[in-house]
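Bench notes, bay 3.
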Amino acid sequence: MSLTSRLKSMVKQALTPQPKPPLTEFEYATLPWIDKKNANIDSFVKQYQRGQNFPYDLAEKLRFWQQNGYVILEKAIQQEWVDQLWREVEELIEHHERYRTNIRIDRPEYAAQPVMEAKDVPVEVLDGPYIKIMDFHDNSVMGKKIMLHNSIVTFLEAVFGDRVVAMQSLLFKYGSQQATHQDFAYVVSENPSHLAAAWIALEDVHIDSGPLFYFPGSHRLRKFDFGTTGMFYSGESKYNPTDFAQYLEKVCQEAGLKRETLLIKKGDVLLWHASLAHGGDAIRNPALTRKSYVCHYSSLKAYQHHRQAPTSEPVRRTINGADVFANPLMPDQEDIFK
């Protein structure tokens, strides 16, 4: 190759955008304000007008979140709302042939097709363990009202410093028994540091029902590197969820972080940071249920499109100054539970 050709090749290579290496940490500039150094919570609370009607001590809750990566809002959801939501779930199970709601089945015999529509899942499977009802809020007005409850929205709007957008939900009857993990590895928004979750107790939690466990303070630990995909997991990752769980338990132990078990009451809400290490404990009494409603959230700037239609303008439902997008693939199933 001549000198001229080599120079042309070098110039072309320099001008060609190079693929960015996979992220192994959140980019500091994109972090929510509360995750940055010297975040002034007292100053924020003074100017956050919406927080004036928050039924808890907002500054105290924000400081606890900053230190521990979670907060609990006691008696946040009216029991009548919780009961109504579960009646709708029972209707879905009993008359499953009427509904197209997606169901995640984590059982070996369904490994080839783990996601099916409710109408295609036998009742005895649908009503048993290892089942997650996906995005039931699409079907349910009450599901949306609980997901975007004023207390949840007020706190998360403060955390993000931006309008709240609900991304997805999971409903289940029995404990998940899921290994230790952090949500950002699986649930990804357009700005991955703008992610939080709510776990809403639909009944009192018993110690033997496979309760949720978590490691306070783990949201500040170094992220696990899945290898080819960085801190996000996919089918192309070098390492798997078991490696992820083992890493988290090891670094939590090394950091002196103690595992805690969540035993909360019906209507209580756990809100947690995307990086909080948590999981589902073993079910020691299979007769016990752990009725749960889990919702994930991002911010307006970080989640602008429905994950099923990333190039389309979403249809928005707005409650308490926050948004949730209608499912673009199942418009006929929207709000069928009034």
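Next record in the batch:
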Amino acid sequence: MSDRDLERARQQRDLKTRHSQALARLMGERADLRGVNALADLVDDSLRWSA
């Protein structure tokens, strides 16, 4: 793997982490959003189970 590929993979991982954190924070603040989007619920549940 080249340095460029490694950097791209790191950036993608960081972006995924930031999005997951932001989603978890939003779902924690807004219980009324539960059930609106199945993928958001799945990610939120996954984060809670892994904590």
